[in-house]
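Quick one: structure tokens for this chain, please?
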Amino acid sequence: MKLHSIWEPYPELATELGEVTKLIEGSIQMRNKEVETVLKDVFNKGGKMLRPAYTLLFSTFGSEHDAKRAQAVAASIELLHTATLIHDDIIDDSPKRRGQETIQSRYGKNAAVYAGDYLFTVSFRLLAQYAKSNQQFEINTKGMERILMGELDQMRLYHHTDMTIRQYLTQISGKTAQLFALSCYAGALEGGLTEKRARIAYHIGSHMGMAFQILDDILDYTISSEEFGKPVLEDVRQGIYTAPLIFAMRKNRRALLPLLEKKEQMTEEEAKKVRQLVIESDGIIEAKRLAEKYTEKSLKKILSLPDTKEKEIIYQLTKQLLSRKS
């Protein structure tokens, strides 16, 4: 299993992430071997493993750090994350994820629903086997509830041309930021930090997740599908309006509104016109400013952590992630 190149400067962390992936792979055992193979392949050729990495790093700050237990909690977090992505792909009818064909595209929506549900059960099974207390169940359950609320907020606001930045931020605070917050918080508690100190980790993850999602939404307007690993401008066609567009609507509503009112019937050329108008109306610039505010909040809180090599990794990694261009 080859990890993403982002981990090359951190060989010890890369080794632990390799163990997390092995634990996930060993925990996925299905009667449908074809879908089982695809699920394992998702993890072996998947994303950056950011969330489990933060779980591992934050678990080192407490006096009760246990490597195996931290790896299990990290694996549980990554399973939750992947399950939500599979369900997202079903809702969005996405043909690709990270440059690969999605499960729903390859096997159909029914198989994808069951595959996603199965990963949820594996996640909680790992917690039952390894977590030191039932507290982790409560944390993950509440986290999943907030993630679901974010998804429902997004659904409620489909094609809502009067959507505000406040509504957008509320939406992504559940949809994306919650899982980053959960990753940091669960690791901190598993390592033995007090609730008060673990809340610092929670806020670091939350601010980081907000900036990460805003940057992700900016990329939808600035790079190609091949670079992004999934179709771009699909959100606009489906009525999912993000920070760049919302800011642009403030300045150029008259030009954008007729295009948005076409909804799913929007052509590729019209979508490109939306992109052009967003850029010309400073939607990208304003969104970047917003992402920078959350980045600064996250980095400032990281500086308050105890001085350890893990703190330095967290700071450098977060700074790198939140200044990415692709």
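The mean pLDDT is 89.
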